[in-house]
């Protein structure tokens, strides 16, 4: 292979600190997949403003999640989801075993610690209604950035966590958790999180760039699926601040969840997009239905 | 030194220590102030005049020597005396009335009583009608008189005045000298008065001690026999002029070794 | 008359600010800049107007943390400064730490407060108190130590007791120092509360800012920033006013003629 | 000898701090407090030690933003202050704004910088510059305006030109004001860069803090806070040193005897 | 007023405006300084003495009247004159040498040349060896001499000195008066000297103008016929005393209407 002369420089924004959700990106860098596509990738952490910056072209790609993309598009922010990093929603409500919260029915009389966003409240309400429980008996506390494990120990009875990271951390700490997975309780909540996004602009102007980026990224995630141990090391090489044990365990837990039951990694299903939008609409969280066909695309996953 | 003396300093030695440096300031100073007498200490800047007053009031303990007030040894024990520091030290956050009443309040008078006493005295200090003024609203001369009023309120037969007119312009100063003599004639206190103005010392005093540059020694003790009450015309008399010449000589200004006391003080 | 003069003096500044806002509006209108990049001033004012009650609710929450923290800081600073004036060893041990703390970004400790004290009112009050405490304490200690020793000597020749010296000399002397510290503290206090809220809270202006940021409503975010600025200015002016009320002898400039 | 004295003066403070650390260690050991609640000092120092190179890498990134922003702020503040001294209408328009800005938590504007200028070095430099600019500019303008008009009169009786007056009177006179502003700015600068990084960056101490927070390593977070504190102190001391070097006539206290 | 006059002030009126308030300060002041003459202006605090110097230098434009230097009308145009303001105004950020060289540098001398000139003069100002000292390292007396040196470096035949010794203690002050006379004898400049000390004015001057409280009018013009060179013994002569009595009378201190000039100035 000959040296690429002038690689295209692109930026990917993360919506959180580096973790195993992003492993494919780091793996593609370390294994030279981007290099082979004549790309030079820079990864930047930008919690809070990923969609805006991708939309304005400050960055080519970003990590987001279905809910954010939906809201962004309804605010006329032209971002598009181009791949589902994990096929199914791995998040759910966690609580200490001793609190005895085994089903949403047990939320009654308990307290929830979270962002305090309307979506969270609606989720709890939906889950509880499925069990004929009374949502008004839940005390909602805003805990913001505070670590969820601390929240469920001290501040509230249950919190919303991603099992692949926080759940694994709890296992390592030998905390015994009850975990109520969202998608088990309410199929509409099996939305895509996280997803890779880009802007309508870039899709129109340089689809070739996106294709090259996605080819390499796909290879990165495929490798992470095959050899989680190696992928974990790639992540750690880029973010040595992380706890090695946590990364390796999390990576192993996630390995078979990236692609799961899909035909290939990253594919998104229109029904999943529609189901969640409908759910949002039903709970008055959005005032109109978004045009989901424009919100995502599988065209770069060939 | 007789038993009628109000204040006696006996063989006072004093040194300031700062860090590992020593600064000998007073070198065997002995002096006395009789009952009702007006005594001045005259000396160049930095010679230790203020230090003498600090020691006389008991605020500062000398290295050696005794201080007697009314024949009682009070060395190093702060006394109830009419001490007026070199800056007027009226507290800017108190009105004239509140400043002047401080000594009475410190003696646990009631506020009402203290203020009444102060108001009574205001006219003779030329401060009538200014009792609720803050110091910044008063002229330099008025401030000095207010500070003197406060000093008067300290119920003690002894007053220690540290260059009370040093910060005033020449004209105001001369005016206040006359006024001080009048007040002193009325209240009959013993006064130890510090100055570095030769004219002022002669004009005011019964007796003058001249002290030398640091470390201060007594260079001359001179009784001033100008008759009282005095007025400014006395300045042009030949007796006054001869006292002045004598004091200038004893102060012994050496122009050869200038830069003089000021510079040495700082280095 | 004094007011009139001060309005006159600020007129050029007001005119300049207004022209900037007008220009901004014009640019947004003509260049069709989307709201999530730069909302037009009119949009910001509409956002402010429509959400005024919601904003006031959040402001109330923030204000409680600000005032609580400030009060706590003042109390502790006074107690500590007076104790340090009384027992020199205490001063020797604490003063260098106080001085150094001036150069430390206390807000960087905010995450710890949250982790240790939860997400209720307490940690915000503590953050605000921490942030305000240091300038207050340093200034008070500085004030006490700058008292002219001659003044204390003078009080001693009047046989005044320690408490009277504290009350009538040291405290009034330290007042200007205290109030200049209070002005700094008042400014920091709002920022402290907001950053505390950014890290975790039920409500408050910080939460409002986060929510609007997450929901792409830049006009609402800017409206919240305006409220934060106004709140900070009010706190600052209150500190100034308190100083003016507490120190009648410092009102020289204009009252001299009226008085 | 001067150094010796200053060590002696700080001894009680050092002893106190050390005992606090010792007590903390003891409590953590005996009460078995888990690391994610309160790590023992020993753990923090191990974290610091093991990650020192990594921390230094991040520090380097933060430092670039800090120094860049500070330099930019100094440059703009000087140009503006001199222009305001020269053209009074400009001063009338800007000075009130500058004064008010003192009471505004500039850091609240950080999210806007990120949205407008991306996530590279630029927005951090801008945040730092914004945060530092105001104390510098206000102090410089204040300094220029406090110059004794008699001094300028005097220079005029020597027929000195405008530039000579600026150079030999106004600038040196404003130096102490400038450096006291610089000390404030140096302190803020680090906080500004870190909060900028919290909101979006590739690396830097702020990123390190977030990453360790998110991987539940409180000892590493505290190690980073220690680095932040040290960095702030260094910036502060550098500002002080710069003032010392630039103003030989202000070195009174101790040099007088040696000089 | 003859053509040999260095400086002439003709019918000067001056008023300060602040906001809507007016403060008339000078009321028809006319005076002149002959070539090589030493003329003093004596007056109470706030009478407008400094204002006269500001107007004489051209720094301040009077409301009415003319200023002539060497017979040329320079009213309101800052001139190259040896002006020494009331505070010494040595710049703290410059060493003695740099301060004194300022006038030469302002005239575009090279640094080297300027410093050489300054160094030459240091000995006669008693400042030998102090050229690299900062002002804070000098005593009060040395600072005054340094400021005077700087004033001398302004190449102009006219010196305007505003209470150069006002801030000094009495002893240093008397010493510097002698020294000033010596320097003046050597350099032969025309001097307009402001003071509020009667003794100082008589001791130094060829002629004295006394001005009244604000708004300042000329109350008296008096030629002093003590022969030169003078020394301190002259103070005790009767001629000196009679001048002094005359000046005191003309200054007209009214003890009846005290609080006097100070207070009125502030309110
Ligand atoms: N608290 C102190 N510590 C150290 N040195 C001191 C202290 N107080 C005064 N001195 C020094 O002691 C010397 C004598 O001081 P003192 O104030 O008694 O002089 P003074 O005759 O009153 O001078 P002045 O006329 O200037 O008031 C001076 O050199 C002064 O610097
Ligand atoms: N720039 C100014 N603006 C307004 N008023 C002024 C100004 N300069 C001086 N004055 C006032 O004018 C009056 C005369 O001032 P000036 O300085 O000439 O008096 P002076 O005789 O020199 O007094 P002193 O002996 O105290 O120096 C004073 O009342 C003073 O307050
Ligand atoms: Mg003294
Ligand atoms: Mg004057």
- CATH 4th-level superfamily of the largest domain in chain B: P-loop containing nucleotide triphosphate hydrolases
Count of separate DSSP helical elements of chain B: 8
Q: What gyration radius of chain B follows from the Cα positions, in whole Å? A: 19 Å
Count, helices of chain A: 14
How many structural domains are formed by the residues of chain B? 2
Instruction: Kindly provide the radius of gyration of chain A, computed on alpha-carbon positions and rounded to a whole number of angstroms.
Output: 19 Å
Number-wise, the strands of chain B total 10
Identify every distinct bound molecule in the structure, by name, code or SMILES: adenosine-5'-triphosphate, magnesium ion
SSE order of chain A: EHHEHEHEEEHEHEHEHEHHHHHH
Strand order of the largest sheet of chain A: 2-1-3-10-4
Summarize the amount of helix of chain B as a percent range.
25-40%
Q: What is the class of the largest domain in chain B in the CATH system?
A: Alpha Beta
Average pLDDT across residues of chain A?
A: 91
Overall pLDDT level of chain B: 86
Question: Largest sheet of chain A, described in full?
Answer: 5 strands, mixed
The poorly predicted ranges of chain B are 253-267
At CATH level 2, the architecture of the largest domain in chain B is: 3-Layer(aba) Sandwich
Structural class given helices, strands, pairing of chain A?
alpha/beta
Which terms would index this structure?
heteropentamer; A: 302 residues; alpha/beta; five-stranded mixed sheet; globular; C: 259 residues; mainly alpha; MetI-like fold; 83% helix; binds adenosine-5'-triphosphate; binds magnesium ion
Detail the topology: elements first, then pairings:
The complex is a heteropentamer, with one copy of chain A (302 residues), two copies of chain B (267 residues) and two copies of chain C (259 residues).
Chain A: E1 8-14, H1 23-30, H2 33-36, E2 39-45, H3 50-55, E3 61-64, H4 66-74, E4 79-84, E5 91-96, E6 111-114, H5 118-130, E7 139-142, H6 148-155, E8 158-162, H7 163-172, E9 177-181, H8 182-185, E10 195-199, H9 200-205, H10 207-226, H11 228-238, H12 244-254, H13 270-282, H14 292-295
Parallel strand pairs in A: 1-2, 1-3, 6-7, 6-8
Antiparallel strand pairs in A: 3-10, 4-10, 5-8, 5-9
Chain B: E1 5-18, E2 21-34, E3 38-42, H1 49-56, E4 64-69, E5 72-73, E6 82-84, H2 96-106, H3 111-121, H4 140-153, E7 158-162, H5 170-187, E8 190-195, H6 198-204, E9 207-211, E10 218-223, H7 238-251, H8 261-266
Parallel strand pairs in B: 3-8, 3-9, 6-7, 7-8
Antiparallel strand pairs in B: 1-2, 1-4, 4-5, 9-10
Chain C: H1 2-31, H2 41-50, H3 52-86, H4 88-101, H5 110-117, H6 121-146, H7 149-157, H8 162-199, H9 205-214, H10 218-246, H11 252-258
Bound molecules: adenosine-5'-triphosphate (2 copies) and magnesium ion (2 copies).
């Amino acid at each position: 292979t000959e040296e690429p002369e002038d690689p295209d420089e692109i930026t990917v924004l993360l919506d959180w600190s580096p973790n195993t959700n992003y492993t494919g990106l780091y793996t593609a860098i370390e294994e030279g997949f981007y290099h082979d596509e004549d790309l030079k990738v820079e990864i930047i952490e930008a919690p809070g403003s990923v969609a805006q910056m991708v939309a304005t072209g400050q960055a080519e790609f970003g990590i987001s999640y279905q809910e954010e993309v939906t809201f962004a598009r309804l605010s006329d922010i032209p971002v598009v989801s181009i791949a589902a990093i994990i096929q199914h929603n791995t998040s759910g409500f966690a609580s200490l075993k001793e609190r005895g919260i085994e089903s949403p029915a047990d939320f009654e009389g308990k307290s929830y610690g979270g962002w305090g966003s309307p979506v969270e409240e609606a989720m709890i309400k939906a889950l509880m209604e499925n069990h004929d429980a009374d949502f008004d008996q839940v005390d909602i506390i805003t805990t913001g950035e505070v670590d969820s494990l601390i929240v469920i120990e001290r501040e509230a009875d249950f919190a919303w966590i991603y099992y692949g990271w926080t759940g694994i951390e709890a296992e390592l700490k030998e905390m015994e958790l009850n975990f109520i997975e969202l998608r088990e309780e309410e199929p509409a909540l099996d939305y895509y999180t996280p997803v890779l996004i880009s802007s309508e602009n870039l899709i129109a102007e340089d689809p070739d760039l996106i294709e090259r980026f996605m080819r390499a990224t796909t290879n990165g995630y495929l490798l992470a699926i095959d050899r989680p141990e190696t992928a974990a090391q790639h992540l750690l090489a880029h973010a040595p601040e992380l706890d090695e044990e946590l990364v390796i365990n999390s990576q192993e837990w996630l390995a078979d969840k990236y692609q799961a039951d899909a035909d290939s990694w990253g594919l998104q299903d229109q029904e999943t997009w529609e189901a969640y939008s409908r759910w949002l609409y039903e709970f008055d969280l959005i005032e109109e239905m978004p045009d989901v066909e424009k919100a995502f695309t599988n065209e770069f996953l060939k | 030194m007789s038993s009628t003396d109000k204040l006696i300093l006996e063989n006072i030695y004093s040194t300031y220590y700062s860090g590992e440096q020593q600064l000998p300031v007073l070198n065997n100073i002995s002096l006395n102030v009789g009952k009702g007498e007006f005594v001045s200490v005259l000396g160049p800047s930095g010679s230790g005049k203020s230090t003498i007053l600090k020691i006389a009031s008991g605020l500062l303990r000398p290295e050696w020597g005794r201080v007697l007030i009314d024949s009682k040894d009070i060395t190093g024990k702060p006394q109830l005396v009419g001490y007026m520091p070199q800056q007027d030290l009226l507290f800017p956050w108190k009105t004239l009335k509140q400043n002047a009443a401080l000594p009475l309040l410190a003696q646990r008078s009631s506020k009402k009583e203290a203020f009444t006493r102060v108001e009574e005295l205001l006219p003779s200090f030329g401060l009538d009608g200014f009792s609720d003024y803050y110091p910044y609203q008063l002229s330099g001369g008025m401030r000095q008189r207010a500070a003197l009023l406060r000093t008067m309120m300290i119920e003690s037969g002894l007053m220690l005045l540290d260059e009370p007119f040093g910060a005033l312009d020449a004209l105001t100063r001369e005016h206040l000298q006359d006024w001080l003599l009048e007040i002193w004639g009325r209240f009959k206190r013993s006064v130890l008065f510090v100055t570095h103005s030769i004219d002022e010392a002669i004009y005011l005093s019964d007796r003058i001690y001249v002290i030398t540059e640091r470390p201060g020694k007594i260079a001359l003790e001179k009784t001033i026999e100008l008759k009282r009450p005095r007025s400014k015309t006395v300045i042009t008399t030949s007796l006054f002029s001869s006292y002045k010449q004598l004091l200038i000589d004893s102060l012994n200004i050496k122009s050869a070794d200038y830069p003089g006391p000021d510079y040495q003080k700082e280095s | 008359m004094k007011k009139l003069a001060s309005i006159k003096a600020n007129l050029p500044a007001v005119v300049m600010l207004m022209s900037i806002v007008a220009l901004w509006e014009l640019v947004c209108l003509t260049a069709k800049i989307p709201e999530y990049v730069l909302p037009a001033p009119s949009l910001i004012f509409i956002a402010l107007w429509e959400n005024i009650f919601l904003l006031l609710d959040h402001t109330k929450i923030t204000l409680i943390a600000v005032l609580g923290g400030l009060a706590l800081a003042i109390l502790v600073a006074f107690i500590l400064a007076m104790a340090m004036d009384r027992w020199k060893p205490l001063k020797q041990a604490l003063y260098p730490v106080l001085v150094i703390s001036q150069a430390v970004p206390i807000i960087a400790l905010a995450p710890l407060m949250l982790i240790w004290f939860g997400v209720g009112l307490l940690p915000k009050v503590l953050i605000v108190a921490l942030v305000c405490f240091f300038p207050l304490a340093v200034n008070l200690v500085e004030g006490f130590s700058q008292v002219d020793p001659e003044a204390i000597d003078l009080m001693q020749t009047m046989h005044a007791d320690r408490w009277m010296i504290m009350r009538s000399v040291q405290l009034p002397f330290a007042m200007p120092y205290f109030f200049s510290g209070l002005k700094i503290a008042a400014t920091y206090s709002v920022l402290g509360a907001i950053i505390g809220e950014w890290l975790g809270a039920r409500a408050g202006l910080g939460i409002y800012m986060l929510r609007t940021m997450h929901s792409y409503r830049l006009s609402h975010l800017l409206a919240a920033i305006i409220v934060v600025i106004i709140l900070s200015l009010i706190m600052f002016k209150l500190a100034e006013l308190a100083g003016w009320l507490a120190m009648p002898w410092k009102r020289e400039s204009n009252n001299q003629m009226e008085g």
